[in-house]
Amino acid sequence: MLVHFTIPFLKKNKTNVMIALIQFVIIFVILQYVSALLLDQYSKRNELDQGIGANTWTIEAAIKNIKDIDGEGHLTWLNTQIDALNKQVSPQHVSYSYIDYNQRSNQGYSVLYVEKKLYDRLAERLRLDQAPYLYTNISNEKIQSIHIGKNDFKADQRFLMADTELIDSLTNGMLQNYILLPTDGFPYDNLSVQINMFIYDLDSQAFDSAQLLHQLNSLNPRYEYSISQTIDSSTSLLNYSINDFLSYIFIAIMALCLIMIGFIGFLLVQFYEEKRNVQLLRIMGASTIQMFALFFIRNSLIVLPAFTVASLIGYLSLRTQYADVWIAMFSWNVVGMIGLLLLATLPSFIKTIQLNLIDNH
Amino acid sequence: MCLIELVNITKVYRGKNVETKVFEGISFEIHVGDYIGLYGRSGSGKSTLLHILGLLDRPSSGTVKFKGTDIGQIKAHQFSQIRNEHIGFVFQDFRLIDELTIFENVEIPLILSKQKCSKAVREQKVMAVLSKLDIQDKRNSYPQELSGGQKQRVAIARALVNEPSLILADEPTGNLDEQAARNTMQILSELNKEGTTIIIVTHDPEVKKYTDKVIDMREIVAQM
Questions:
Q1: Where are the transmembrane segments (chain B) (predicted)?
Q2: Distance in angstroms (rounded) separating the CA atoms of residues B72 and B70
Q3: How far is B200 from chain A (nearest CA, A)?
Q4: DSSP state at residue B49
């Protein structure tokens, strides 16, 4: 029945309520996108943590000036840089992989050379302890028929075929089908390879990434180096700080919602007519619980239609891209919204409790 | 039977640097069935006294007993229940909610009541008081469609719907023309004859004619 009383409250401030509704739709759509991105990242990071291990970092090299590619090629990693890296991070935490573009199968498979430590680690993680180290159900004959790097590959050689997601995470999602071959040698003399350097089993506190980057950049000025945490394949290697940034945006939007709902509720009580009605209900015997329920319902009537519209927009636009996280995201948003409404009702409620019942007589 | 007992009531408003004493040491009793006029000029403290009687405000010192219960001993949240069940309020400016129909306005105390009643019972009670005040045909109208006199009838109907033992009317005729004021006072007199205790705050000497007893704020303040 209390819903009945909220109608006059809203009718009195029709324009303000409409503006608030539009603002909330926009905010909630942004909130849905940000939370979808966040949950997607966390979900994929968890996947990756299980696959490659937590606290895995990739150091990438990007050429500074495209004109520097002169056809002769050059090294993205120099000996001096490897030394600098090993000084900061124990070699047992460093590994690498590289692609040799000269070795490509005509059947769509490529070789990804993986440093032995990383190889063993992947084999262990992927539970590939059974001979002959096949990860997929592709037969030996099939593998042997893939004529990749005949010089490197032998029929009895230990190798891995890993799933697309894992391989993508190792190669920035550049190519799809790989056979992983272990190697003990760093390809200093091979100018046509792309090297991915990894640091694993180290959290961000265990090494000074800023100092390391400064050193790497000063030792090889043709390249710009960056360190990022391996997140997932579709977004390549997403920097950890972006993840934090999204979290901040998420928190900021939630805070904004809270302030807006609370403030609008509070403002509505300030209007003379509203104040008069609230006073009247209190005088007529409305209990504090009834007043809280009244404001909760009123705030819900302002916010929930906007939330519904935003959820619909979010569902239509995000359901394909973030299908895996959609239900989780929606559930969290609903729980968050109820919490938000309860919190946001407090300012109006407190104002009402403090309201002097005898003024304006 | 004593309905309200005031013992040595004092009310002081405290500002930042100023203290305003409205009245001091007031003691009197209101019995069931009384029809009392609180008479005085603007600013004499009559409304403040009415607010204390209506449990809208607490005295600075002294004791207020409502049906034998010292209200100083009960918690603030219980005030609302007492107001809802035992006291009906009538205001000078009617205090109707413009967006609700007359029926809905009168229904408010029933909805807020702890003793939940069904929609059918609410309908029955509301229509009974509307009929009693001869405004049943206005049930679907909105306050702005009514005259001042009719609005005050609605306000009285709302005050009566929970069958309170006390009606507090704050300048009920202040916004009415002569005829409407007379009608309102007659309605209140009839309600009093039916047993309802009524206290009217007024500065209109005409109102004194309808009440059984007058408490003159000037005399109270003079005793301070």
A1: none
A2: 5
A3: 14
A4: H
- What integer pLDDT is reported at residue A238 of this predicted model? 39
Contact between B68 and B3 (Cβ < 8 Å): no
Asked if residue B184 is part of any domain, the answer here is: yes
Show the DSSP H helices in chain B as ranges. 46-53, 76-86, 102-112, 119-132, 148-160, 178-193, 217-222
Taking only the tens place, the pLDDT of each residue in B84-95 is: 999 999 988 899
All structural domains of chain A with their residue ranges: 2-46+241-354, 57-229
Residue B52 near residue B213, CB atoms below 8 Å: no
- Give the type of residue at A299: N
Contacts for B170 with CB less than 8 Å, ≥ 6 apart: A361, B47, B50, B89, B90, B91, B92, B201
Q: Tell me the residue type at A345.
A: T
Cβ–Cβ pairs < 8 A, chains A and B = 66
Give chain B positions within 8 Å (CB) of A291: none
B81 touches chain A (CB under 8 A): yes
Total number of domains constituting chain B: 1
Nearest C-alpha of chain A: how many angstroms from B91? 8
B199 domain-assigned: yes
What is the rounded average pLDDT of the residues A145-174?
55
Closest CB to A285: pick one of B99, B104, B112.
B112
Tell me, yes or no, if B98 comes closer than 8 A to chain A by beta carbon. yes
Containing structural domain, residue B194: 34-57+74-215
Query: CB-based contact (8 Å) between B89 and chain A?
Result: yes
Please write the tens of the pLDDT for every residue from A226-257: 887 654 433 333 344 445 666 667 777 777 77
Residue B51 has pLDDT above 60, yes or no: yes
From the list B47, B89, B104, which residue is nearest A283 (CB)? B89
Q: Cβ contact (<8 Å) for B99 and A1?
A: no
* Contact across the interface for A358 and B99, Cβ inside 8 Å: no
- For residue B23, being part of any structural domain is answered with no
Of the partner residues B48, B109, B170, the one whose CB lies closest to the CB of residue A284: B109
B74–A contact, CB cutoff 8 A: no
Which CATH number fits the domain that encloses residue B108?
Answer: 3.40.50.300
Q: Please identify among residues 1-30 of chain A the ones whose CB lies closer than 8 Å to any CB of chain B.
A: 1-2, 4-5, 7-8, 11-12
**With 70 as the cut, is the pLDDT of residue A136 above it?**
no
Tokens 């309201």 found at: A355
Average pLDDT over residues B49-72: 90
Q: Assess: ipTM above 0.90.
A: no
Position B64 in a domain: no
Of A54, A51, A323, give the one whose Cα is nearest residue A164.
Answer: A51
- Nearest-Cα residue of chain B relative to residue A278: B97
